[in-house]
Amino acid sequence: MPNLDNSKFHTQGYTVSSTSADAGATVVYTCPANFGAITRYLHISNNNTATKKVFVQFYHAEDNAYHYIANGLSMSGHSVINLVNGGYFNLHAGDKIAVYGETANTMEVIVSVEEYYNPQHKA
């Protein structure tokens, strides 16, 4: 059973170098073994002056499949977007958030998750 009393927070920023999908994308978060995670913040910034596209994927470890959170989201130069917008989504052990852009090193990502111990999800 998950223990939400002992949760911890993890925030990380990345410059996205990848321009390809699935296993070739830049992994910005992987939920550790024996934990679950609640994604609280997923912020993307286009650091380029030109309009660029960004692709955000959720890797579901249980069925070994990638699913799009954002597929070719067009962002004008120096714009930002938060994909969570006050909501959240859950990850289980082994699940990942991966990002790639149409051009390398033009997207910045900040992800913040709340991790909680859950021994039922071993991964």
Mean pLDDT: 94
Between the first and last Cα atoms, what is the distance in angstroms? 15 Å
- Range of helix content: under 10%
Q: Please count the beta strands (DSSP E, at least 2 residues each).
A: 9
Radius of gyration, CA atoms, in whole angstroms = 15 Å
Number of helices: 0
Percent of residues in beta strands: over 45%
Keywords:
123 residues; four-stranded antiparallel beta sheet; 0% helix; mainly beta; five-stranded antiparallel beta sheet
Polypeptide structure, described:
The structure is a single chain. By secondary structure, the protein is mainly beta. A hairpin with a 4-residue loop joins strand 4 and strand 5. About 0% of the residues lie in helices and about 60% in strands. It has strands at about 5-15, 25-30, 35-45, 50-60, 65-75, 80, 90, 95-100, 105-115. It is built from no helices and 9 strands. Strands 1, 3, 6, 7 and 9 form a 5-stranded antiparallel sheet that branches. Strands 2-8-4-5 form a 4-stranded antiparallel sheet, with no helix packed on it.
